[in-house]
Write the structure tokens for this entry.
Amino acid sequence: MTTEDSSVEIEDDEEAALHFIVNVSKGDGGEMLEFSCATDGETVEVRNVRYESLSDAEEDDADLLAATYPGPNYDELDETVQEEFHRYLEARGVDHVLANYVAELHVHKEQTLYVDWISKVQGFVGAKE
Amino acid sequence: MFRSALRRARTALQPLVTGARASAPHVERRALSTLCASDLAAAGRVSPVAAVHHALRRDIHHSSLLHDAASTDSSEKGLYQVLGEELEHERSTYVPSEIIAAGPPAPFELIESDGDCEITLVRTYGDDEEISITFNAAEVRARFRTTHPTNPSASNPSTFTSSSPN
């Protein structure tokens, strides 16, 4: 495989990635971990981990997002830490089974939205004819 | 028929996925890119989605949705009828997967609304933890549009081209 082929493969993988957010909140939502994740339908990849607390949220939400620490560059975290974050999510059911369901649900929901869109557009143009 | 074409493309592409690790949705998303790229290439054909967009823009009584139905005189059809055929086709052919039919992995519960792109799965864990998983069903399509070769505002058309099998 050439270098160009490799880059195409990476782009294809990235194109196929489905992004989702996992929020883990404790104490009536007083504290929260927000995991930015991606899946190809088989595995869960963590991209970022943000910590938030209710005391931080006294400000306006937009200001809060801009002001709070977004978390470290996840790829630069020690591998042991990354592995433990992965286990932390797995213990909470965020695993390959869920990844598969999320990917299937994405396809199903998009199909449902597509059919709904056709129906609405058809109704719209039909009303004019 | 776009969806059906996508599924056909997914089937055709299945052997091309290395290592047989990719799931059906993974392959389908690849197929989406490949289908649209190949259909929009210089072969003179137009993808079903592009055909709908084209008809919507011009509001003309013509559709390219039925390239594979040679016996149909598409020039006689209006947008309303073409969309009606597409709707009927999708409703009669799409069957949710067994995974969808089985529902979310226990103890997750699904929260969604008709017409809303956002989907949430929720569960509790331990004594005081709430877990929620959120994603947007329109994400891939939005991303696809940003790399569409016929979209003048495409941010990175070379990415789309490079993912084409041609």
Q: What stands out?
A: Residues 33 and 59 of chain B are 26 Å apart (CA to CA).
